[in-house]
Hints:
- It holds the Pfam family Rrf2.
- It comes from Candidatus Uhrbacteria bacterium RIFCSPHIGHO2_02_FULL_60_10.
- Keywords: DNA-binding.
- GO terms for molecular function: DNA binding; DNA-binding transcription factor activity.
- The chain is mainly alpha-helical.
- The chain is built from seven helices and two strands; from the N terminus they run αααββαααα.
- Helix 1 packs across helix 3 (44-56) and helix 1 (9-23) crosses helix 4 (81-89).
- The longest helix has 16 residues, at 112-127.
- It is elongated.
Amino acid sequence: MKTFLDVPQKVHHGLWLATELAGVFRSGRALSLETVSRRAGISQGYLETIAGALRRAELISGQRGQGGGYRLARDPWEISVAEIIAAIEGPLDVVPCLGGAPCDLVDECANRDVWSRLRAQMVDFLAGTSVAEAAGLGRAKKLKSPIAKKHG
């Protein structure tokens, strides 16, 4: 079923990987993609692609060998959901013209402001939501966000 804002499966799985890593962050343990893959029912090769994007964005780090696996590169309270999404999918644009794509109607489009405001609110919310929050890690600390102040 298609939804209004159809979140790509790759983003959903990337956030899931990040929240799994958040759950073991305090212990200092690393998680293997094999373990995460088995828990989530996601192919390990697919997770490797996602982990590669998160690693290139310096959101996670990997270690090979005995006791190796992946860890978050920073405290999960300091990594935003927006960072995870941007690392995997790129800019958070709700319509192509906001990302700079050519549009014949750009000068006369009455809707552009609506989409622009939606994007701004969405980015504020996602930037103000930490991976730790997404993982349900109980501490009531939130990243600074005007949206969090209004609704949280």
